[in-house]
Amino acid sequence: MLVALARGVAPGRRDAHASALLPRPLGGVVALAADRPLARGLLRGVTLGLVDHIALRTAALDAVVEEGRERSIPQLVLLGAGLDARAWRFGAHGYQVYEVDHPATQTFKRRHAPKGAAPIYVPVRFGDERVADALEAAGHRADQPTVWLWEGVTMYLPEDAVEDTLGQVRERSAPGSLLGVTYIEPGGIHAAPGIRTMVDWVFEGLGEGLGARYRPDALRRLVSRHGFVVRRDGGSETWPRLWGGEPRMAQLVLGAERLCVAECAGADSD
Ligand SMILES: C[S@@+](CC[C@H](N)C(=O)[O-])C[C@H]1O[C@@H](n2cnc3c(N)ncnc32)[C@H](O)[C@@H]1O
Prior knowledge:
Elements: H1 2-8, H2 18-21, H3 26-34, H4 37-46, H5 50-70, E1 75-79, H6 86-90, E2 96-101, H7 103-112, E3 120-123, H8 131-138, E4 146-150, H9 159-171, E5 178-184, H10 193-205, H11 216-225, E6 228-234, H12 247-254, E7 257-264
Parallel strand pairs: 1-2, 1-4, 2-3, 4-5
Antiparallel strand pairs: 5-7, 6-7
Bound molecules: S-adenosylmethionine.
S-adenosylmethionine (SAM) binds near residues 105 and 127.
C-alpha cells in the first residue's frame, strides 16, 4: 500500500491507477494530493524520501518493460505484484501480463482492481509453492521469452526462497528473457540507527520483516548460477528520472536498495 501511495503522488508522472487500488482512506488521500503540489510535497517529506525512491525505482523498472516491448517479448510476469498497476499501464500494449503474489495480497487486489486489461492472477507463496507449476497451469509459455519483474520483494524472503524462486524462473525463461530484480545490500536501511530500528519495527509490524540481503557481486553470482547474465546494476543515483524522484531524497532511508537487470542467455550459459 505504501508503494502504491508513493506511485500515486510521484512528483513528475503519478500513477493514475494508484488511488483506485488503495483502500479508503488512503485512496482518497492520494486522489486529493494528486493535484495539490503542497500536499504531495508534504507526503514526500513525511515518508522520508520513500515517494522519491519509489518514483525512481518505477522509472528504472519501466525501462526494462519498455526494452522488452521493443524486442517484442510477449509475456510480462510480476513476481510479488502487490498493488503494482503495470498490468493496466502496459497490458494494452501487447504484453500478456501474469501477476504472481501471495494469495492474501491477491484477494485484496482483485477487489480493488481497476476495470479493463486485467492480468492473469497466479496465487503462490514463494518458498512454499512451485511458481513454475502455477505459471504453467495459468498458460504462461516457457518456450517464449518473458520479462520478469521482481520489485521490492526479495528483502522480505529468506535466502533459500529467493534461490528456489530464481531456479524456477530459469526453468520458464526462454533465451532473451529479461529479469529486473531489486535487492537490499547488507548494510540495510540507510539512516541514523534510531530511525533504522524504527523502520525495522514498522516492517516487522506489517508482517514484512526484512529478509535476504546481497552485495552486488553476490547477487551477480546468484543470478549467473541460474543462467542470467547481468546487463546492469545500480541504485537510485543511476536510475532514470522519468517519474520525477530526486536521488538525494531517495537515498534517505531506502538508499540501500539496488536494481539488477539480467538477460537469460540460453542453455549453454549454465
Ligand atoms: C513491498 S510489496 C511490493 C509490491 C510490488 N512489487 C510493487 O513494487 O509495487 C511486497 C510484495 O511481496 C509479496 N510477498 C511477500 N512475501 C511473499 C511470499 N512469501 N510469497 C508470495 N508473495 C510474497 C507481498 O504479497 C507483496 O505483494
